[in-house]
Each structure stands twice: as structure tokens, then as C-alpha cells.
Amino acid sequence: MQQAIAILDSGVGGLTVVKEVMRQLPREKIIYFGDTARAPYGPRPADEVLKFTGQIVDFLIQFDPKVIVIACNTATAAALDEISSRVSVPVIGVIHPGARAAISATNTGRVGVIGTVGTIRSGAYTTALKQLSPYIEIVSLACPSLVPIVERGEFRSENVSLIVQESLSPMKNYNIDCLILGCTHYPFLRETIQEVMGPHVKLISSADETARETSTILYNKGKLASGDTLPIHQFYCSGDPLLFRSIARQWLGEQIRNIPVLWQVTRLG
Amino acid sequence: MQQAIAILDSGVGGLTVVKEVMRQLPREKIIYFGDTARAPYGPRPADEVLKFTGQIVDFLIQFDPKVIVIACNTATAAALDEISSRVSVPVIGVIHPGARAAISATNTGRVGVIGTVGTIRSGAYTTALKQLSPYIEIVSLACPSLVPIVERGEFRSENVSLIVQESLSPMKNYNIDCLILGCTHYPFLRETIQEVMGPHVKLISSADETARETSTILYNKGKLASGDTLPIHQFYCSGDPLLFRSIARQWLGEQIRNIPVLWQVTRLG
Questions:
Q1: Which member of B132, B212, B228 has the closest CB to residue A104?
Q2: ipTM for the whole predicted complex goes beyond 0.90
Q3: What would the CATH number be for the domain defined by A95-206?
Q4: Is A133's CB within 8 Å of B103's CB?
């Protein structure tokens, strides 16, 4: 049987990684777990996020995936190192791909990062960026109001514009040329964020970049799927399946219209 | 002693990878070999390119590098698999990073590739793109006139515009939204290529993308350089050292103004 790419998130944010993996690697089978019953992870203490992430990994590892993608910045900051040392398959987080893409994209070296309270407090982007280049200047900002609007399925409205505007206003004083969307929920709000920041600021989606690096790593390990059979993806969530499925269908759109998908609800912990 | 990133090319084209590695990974030491005495590789038969690449790798491996980057599309197409199986350090070619970046960047799925006769004849980009996604449409075009103008240090002039225009004219009929610069010499001509193709076509530099993936692979192997000591880079070429040094200084510009560099001439074969 074809080994899958396992992707996990606190809720629906990781679907932004799913969408890009489906687009960039259409032959790959995906098994997704969204911990919607316990989302958001952003305000939770790091040890709780580590525990929850460990439970999801224990669930996903049963499917013998070829790679595990922690498609949540908060969980990556809290759990990537521990999970990597615990399982034998490669584990990919979303923070380093975003950091590498920002360093590749910036011209001025002034990079902004937005994320949850947990991600920003961890300093994980600053560490990752500084590890690559000591010359980068970083402006970090926690935007705790953004995940809840995405988790309830609100992507584009006057209310969204107001919340995004208010959340990002401190970032507008710093002359950055590149902004890392350091939370996989934020690409749902990409258009509004671009409008608020202006056209001269390049937006880096940690989700898109993680899909690309998953492709790099699978290629380098000789693990890319081949053949012409369409994969059957599997989606699991821990909370309300109707809301989850509706957001997934809306976001993934045409990419799941013609392919078989299995939907399941599973409680953890 | 700090292990270096070894980078090789048929001539000066690989300096486009060097420039990006210096920018994205300023702590990393680089050892470069440009086979300027035998450039261009593009029109040569594949077995000759394989032999020349093997000789350069034998030279570079003496320095105990942590990774070898074949910063030449022609040499990647002809020699990547064989070199990878022959040495124990990771070997990175320029074709797959460019292919992955194009799949990530395209919206319409219509991707153009320009390269040398050797690269285009090998079909290596088509194979790499189709391995990732069966839905990509690819238009390939050999542009044999472009490498010689770069190798003689001519980057921007009316003559360059005319040659680029003539070389790319067959590509303009195909409604692509993304063009892979499938030769590391072409970023020297980037501005002219962008003018000829128009602003709606995204240019993908296999050089930039390879630097980024070198970063990914070193990170995943725990091999990124740390510390605050500036590395001393080493540049070797097989032909005229004055022309090589002048092109390198012009292209790398401020990035080598304040750092120590060792220049050498070495004949191979």
C-alpha cells in the first residue's frame, strides 16, 4: 500500500499545507488530523501543546506514514525537537521552511513575523532566522485574534478586514519588505493581509514553503510516489465534523471535488 | 576546520549559486571550481560532460566538503546520478530545485524551460516536473547563444538585448506563466530576459532555488555552520584567471568586498 504523508494541526490551519501538497505533489496520499476540539493551541502553555501533539503523532504513526508534517507553528515551536527524536520517520515543521523562504525573498534584510502568542513567545522564528544569517533584522508580532475567526470559517468580510487591520497596525511602522505568515491559519486571510500591508511587502506562507520542502525531502530520500493511481486521502478531526468538512471543502475546493476522500471523527486524550 | 560547501560549474555560471549561498548562508565557507578552460559544456556530448564533472569532483573532494553542489544544469543532467552514487557526501544538482520552485510558483500549470542544448536534449526538466506532477505542461527551448556572452563578461547591452530577444522569441507564443532559467549563467541576463518575456511571467532561477535547498539539506542533516568567524572562500578556475576574477568581483560585488578570498588557477585532466 502507498505510504502517506501525515499532516497534523490544532484545527483547520494545516489545510493550507494540505492544499499545497495536493497541488505540488498530486500523486501523494495524505492523512490529516485536525485537533478541532482543542483548538486554538496558540494561547496554551508549551507543555500542554507538546502533550497534545504527541497524542496526535501516536495516532498518525499507526498508519505507517513516510513523513510527518507538523503543520502548526505553535506545535512546531513546542514539540518538533522532541517528536523528531521519538519517531523514526522524518518530521517536518513549518518554522524553518518559512524562515529559509524569507531569507531567500528579502532584499533589505528587514523581515516581519506574525504568529500566535505561543509561537512568538517561543522566539522560534528569531532563532531559525538568526541561525541562518546574523544580518537579518526581525520584527515579531503576536496576532491572537486571527485564528479564532478562521476556525469558525470566516475568511473574507468587513469584520475580518477590521480585525486584521487592528492586529497588524503595530507592524506597519517598521519598513519590512517581507512578512512571514507564521501560522498556518493565516493564508486563509492572505488577501486581506496583503491589502493591509500594501503591495510592496512580500507575504511568505509557511504552509506553501513547507509543502515545497516536503517535496525536497521526499525526493532526496527517494520516497516520492509514482504511478497514475489517484490517492484516497483521509481526514480526521476531534471536534464538530460538519464544520470541519465544510471548511475543508470550501478551502480545498476543486482539488477534492473529483477525488475520493474519507472523513472521520476521532477523540484523543 | 570548518567544512565547506563545494560548488562547481563549467565556468562562471555557478557564481550565481555562490552569490545566493553567500547571501542566504553567510556563515558557510565556499570552495568553487569553474572549468573556464573547457566552457561551455552545453554543446558537448553527455559522456564528455560526465568525465569533466568527475575530474572536478575528484579535485574538490580533497577538501572534505560537507556537500557538493553541481551548479551547472548541463553537468547535473549528465552526471548527478553517477556522482551521487560515487561519493559519500550529499550531491545537489540544480535541476530538481528549479522544477520544485516552478511547480510551487505556477498558477496555470504552463511552465517554460530554457537551457543549453545538452540540458534540453536530456529532457531532465521534463522528467523532474512530470515526476512531481502529471498535470504540468512544459515548453522547452535550447538557447545556445546565451552562455558564450556571459562567459565573456557581457551582461547588459544592446547586443545582449538583441541576442536574448532572438533566442526567446519561439517561447513567446506559448502563454506560459513561469519560466525556469535552466542554466546557471542565465541569472546574469535576468533583467533582459524579464523585459523580453514581460512582467506577467515569473522567472525561476535554478541558482537561487539550489542555494535555498542547500540550506534545507544542511539544516536537516544538522550541518549548518555556526559561530561568528567569517569564512575564507576559495575560488579555483582552469582558464584565464584575470577574466574569471574580474567577472566574479563584478557579479559578487559587495558580498566579497569585505571578506577574505583565495584565488587559484588549476588545470585538470
A1: B212
A2: no
A3: 3.40.50.1860
A4: no
